[in-house]
Design brief:
Layout (H helix, E strand, L loop, with lengths): L11 H17 L3 H5 L2 E10 L6 E5 H16 L2 E5 L4 E3 L2 E9 L3 E12 L2 E14 L25 H11 L8 E4 L3 H12 L4 E4 L7 H4 L31 H14 L4 E2 L2 E9 L4 E8 L2 E5 L3 E4 L21 E4 L13 E5 L3 H12 L3 E6 L4 E4 H9 L5 H5 L4 H9 L3 H18 L1 H9 L13 H7 L4 E4 L2 H7 L3 E4 L2 E4 L3 E4 L4 E3 L2 E4 L7 H7 L2 H7 L32 E3 L4 H19 L17
Helix pairs in contact: 5-18, 9-12, 13-15, 16-17
Amino acid sequence: MTQTLDAPPESPARRAADWFTAFEDALRARDVERAAGLFATTSYWRDLVAFSWNVTTVEHRAGVTDLLSATLDRTDPSGFTVSEEPEEADGVTTAWFTFETAVGRGKGLVRLVEEDGQPRAWTLLTTLYELKGHEEPRGTDRPMGAEHGVNRQRLTWAERRAREAAELGRTTQPYVLVVGGGQGGIALGARLRQLDVPALVVDRHARPGDQWRSRYKSLCLHDPVWYDHLPYLPFPDNWPVFSPKDKIADWLESYVKVMEIPYWGSTEVRRAGYDEAAGEWTVEVVRDGEELTLRPKQLVLATGMSGKPNVPVLPGQDVFRGEQHHSSAHPGPDDYAGKKVVVVGSNNSAFDICGALWEHGADVTMVQRSSTHIVKSDSLMEIGLGALYSEQAVAGGMTTEKADLTFASLPYRILHEFQIPAYEQMKERDADFYDRLEKAGFWLDWGDDGSGLFMKYLRRGSGYYIDVGAADLVANGDVELVHGQVDHLTEDAVVLDDGTELPADVVVYATGYGSMNGWAADLISQEVADKVGKVWGLGSDTTKDPGPWEGEQRNMWKPTRQEGLWFHGGNLHQSRHYSLYLALQLKARQAGIPTPVYGLAEVHHLR
């Protein structure tokens, strides 16, 4: 039960306590209609695994009724307790809380509004953070490390680790195979290690972090350090605000060692197939030239949210005498001084590459094919992220976990409404910058509804640039800007659809990426990829995010239509936060805990 609070009747504390008392009473009585009546007419309940064994959002009282009707008996929620002093602003009472289910422990956040003279839930977030009987060995439960006493069969830590490494994949099969050893796979590997799930992370690169080391040398994170911590082991407080790629690479490599993540580098996954009868995958890999067959129960593709590079196929590519490559394979600017370089695209990678090439004396032309949203880095940090992810937020008591949950508590259906005012403020603050860009002919946009960068990222994963300086090169004319689609290449030029010829020694295709399920098609089959459908996007019916509305990221961090197949990734923030919920779903299955999934998404788009 919610604790008794000695608070005035109209105080936020009393309002929250009374709401949770009524909510828990209704749940205990299995009175779904009464529980749903405690929600506002317009309301949203986002559940991360706790009730649904899914990542899902239901809307309004009808959605609450459907969720509770399907899950209440087996979930058996109880112990709802307000965990911090509730706050009130603009008629909304916000309260953090904890609770328990039949199998785990959770925490969440509710926003209450007054409707018909009563407090009603406008938004509710429920998250599972722990499984009963399978708690992580942290804090007071941390392992002893040393084994006191005498034991003739004693193995040292190093001997145990060596034996485990020798057996894994040979005499001992991983329960989970994670394909992709970037930040997503590594974060999930750390979570699974702490939950004692036999897991293996594999990657084609030799060392953890090589994905970053192999990119163009000017690459750095555009998100600030407070947004980018990995689970368990945050960056030290002297870490730079924006991490250079090689520093991130070294951090990932050291993280794998410190967190004892079973990790195979130089490992190529050749093919995978699922045996329905056995309930396991057969995965053929080649590790340092050795062919091995792995048989995990669960297969996680952590091959990058951006998926497979979109490399255009154009007439004349076979006759072009210069160099051409996708931005993901761009080696950096060093060898291109004095050369004419045409960069096809106008988003993050295109700007980064154009800026570095210009600095090294290349003659650079950017081909803009469609409009791009640009936001200046300092404005994004201050206005967009400052309240949750900044030094000031940390000084005010904001933890990474609390920041992640606060952001997660805003349902995607209404998230754009919170984003629009922030981007309007940025537009006003940097009006001169945008005016100069538009006078230079650059096509700017602010998203279909003016909601800016993060909604573009969630909806389509493209169409934006966080400006760290390269946009000024376009505004000043130092990087030449042209518009149009590439029609064909000649021996020494890129030709646009209006006939414009751009002399070129080098062509860089900064043309983005396809859906992550392209990896499923390559590794498993097109049939399985189509069974799963498109990965990423919300169904917002905006540009490159076709409807119908789904309310969550398609197929990310949750069960898919293919048994035993999961997708994991996103930026460092998402890899950190959602790796917990994916790891708990996998642990429950490994431990034999029933996991009936509520709201398994339909497949509306195949790619």
